[in-house]
Amino acid sequence: MKAGKDQPILLMKYLNNSFVKFLIVGITNTLITYLAYLFLLLFFKYQIAYSISYILGIAFSYILNTIIVFKSSISVKKILFYPIVYIIQYLINVALLSYFVNYVNEKIAPILIIVITIPITFLLSKFILKRRENKL
Q: Could you tell me the pTM of the whole model?
C-alpha cells in the first residue's frame, strides 16, 4: 500500500463522509427552518418570515456542522466568519425568492432555493470550519 496511490481514495472517502453528514444535518436544519418559516408566515409577510427563519437556521447550522460534520471546535473567530457564508447565500436567496414566489408560490420557493445552494454552502462551510484556529 503506497501512500501516494491511496491518497485520492482516502480523500474521496473523507469528502463523501463529510458531505453525507452535511446533507443529513442540512435536511434536519432545513425542516426546522422551513417549519419556522411556515409558522412565521402566520404573523409576517414572506420576506420577514424568511429572514427570521434564515437567521435561526444559521445558528443551528453552525452548531451542528461544527460538531457533527467537520468535528471542529466552536470558537468565537469561527462564529464571526461563519455567517459570511450565509450572507452571500442570503443575497442569492433573496433574489431567487422573488423570482420563485412569482413563478411558483411563497411556500415552495424556499425549498427550490435550498436545492440550488447546497453545494456552494458545503464548500464554503468546510473552508471556514476546518481551518486551523491560528489561521483565522
A: 0.63
Closest CA to 46 of 88, 5, 103, 105: 105
Q: What is the pLDDT along the chain (136 residues), one digit of tens a residue?
A: 445 565 566 556 655 688 888 888 988 998 999 999 999 999 999 999 999 998 899 889 899 999 988 888 888 888 888 888 878 787 888 888 888 999 988 889 988 888 888 877 888 888 888 875 545 5
Q: In which residue are the cell numbers 464554503 written? A: 124
* Cell output for 88: 452571500
Question: Rounded distance, CA 103 to CA 67, Å?
Answer: 38
How many Å apart are CA 129 and CA 65, to the nearest integer? 8
